[in-house]
Design brief:
The mean pLDDT is about 95. Helix 2 packs parallel to helix 3 and helix 3 packs parallel to helix 4. By secondary structure, the protein is α/β, with parallel strands linked by helices. Helix content is about 45%, strand content about 20%. The protein starts with a strand and ends with a helix.
């Protein structure tokens, strides 16, 4: 199986730690990376891509110094290397305009408000990683039992 990555981005270490803890159960088959800024996340994505790895999902806070989460996710969305990467905005401070920009410009797949429900976030990440695997045509035979079975069934038996 190719190396799959999930990147979590938040400038507040305690929030980032909580997200990582909530997604920890996926870490036995999915590489989970954390970044404290949009620029750090973009650098990491460049490195992982250069190593031939896949960035399945990016979970980003919105309000951060430098680039906002919407700006980060929009930049990812505009990069052909990451055209299949799924994006989640996780925030407590996005305005209505920010949310619209996230949907229209960054083409996010999901939006979670803080505080989030850990199980809902984990399940959504699992669904998006599964969709990413199928969208990229990756061999999933080794991890099929770990994936979102509803997506697997839809994709294998449309």
């Amino acid at each position: 199986m190719e190396k799959l990555n999930l990147i979590c981005v938040d400038d507040q270490r305690e929030v980032l730690s909580a997200v990582l803890q909530d997604l920890e159960s996926l870490g036995n088959w999915l590489n989970i990376e954390d970044c404290e800024s949009a620029d750090e996340a973009l650098e990491l994505m460049d490195e992982l891509d250069a190593e031939g790895e896949y960035i399945a999902v990016v979970v980003s806070d919105h309000v951060m110094p430098g680039k906002t989460g919407v700006e980060l996710l929009s930049e990812i969305s505009g990069d052909a290397r990451f055209s299949n990467t799924k994006k989640i905005l996780l925030t407590g401070q996005a305005t209505h305009r920010d949310t619209i920009a996230a949907i229209n410009q960054a083409r996010i797949e999901s939006y979670f408000e803080k505080p989030w429900n850990a199980e809902e976030l984990r399940n959504r990440v699992l669904t998006l990683v599964t969709e990413y695997i199928f969208d990229c045509g990756l061999d999933h035979s080794e991890i099929q039992s770990l994936l979102d079975q509803s997506v697997v069934l839809k994709r294998l038996h449309p």
